[in-house]
Amino acid sequence: MTDLLPASDEAALKRAFSCFPTGVVAVCRRTSDGEDVGMSASSFATVSLDPPLVSVCVRDGSTTWPRLTTAERLGVSVFAGHQGEICRRLAGPPEQRFDSVKRFVTESGALMISGAAAHLDCSVLQEIPAGDHHVVLLRIHALRSDPSVEPLVFHASTFRALEARRTQS
């Protein structure tokens, strides 16, 4: 049996977390004065069908989240496999996040990234403190999706592609 490392070893913890592949989303809004605000998040999960809920985890100290949480509606865009550069840009310097990024705003005011595999028009339902993050529950009001679009997958600190495997009948 291999010796386990203590969870207080931050490098070991990050390495362990990186073993779990995740999808990556953009969480965005347009402010009343027309400014686009958004960020990438890899800690996104489905939560409930009734009511329709998803969650995203936001790091304490984020300078972007306080500018998003006040929105009446947020756009959650599930990045497509070809959108790795956009994902990186939305994690970079705020003043350059939307450079050359095609996007649109819904009637409700949610900002979405064009070409994503799915778009969710959401509102913040609840924020739950959890260690050095907040778990944010988002209620979905409207959506569209295309499961035939390959998703962007984050695993071991890099973007990867999924492989469809056929089972023998």
UniProtKB/TrEMBL annotation:
Q: What GO terms are given for molecular function?
A: FMN binding; riboflavin reductase (NADPH) activity
The residue ranges of the Flavin reductase like domain are 17-161
Identify the keywords attached in UniProt to this record, alphabetized: Oxidoreductase
Pfam families noted in UniProt = Flavin_Reduct
Reading the lineage from the top rank, the first entry is: Bacteria
Which SUPFAM superfamilies does the UniProt entry name for this protein? FMN-binding split barrel
| PANTHER family listed in its UniProt record | FLAVIN REDUCTASE (PTHR30466), FLAVIN-DEPENDENT MONOOXYGENASE, REDUCTASE SUBUNIT HSAB (PTHR30466:SF11)
UniProt record similarity statement: Belongs to the non-flavoprotein flavin reductase family.
Full protein name: Putative oxidoreductase
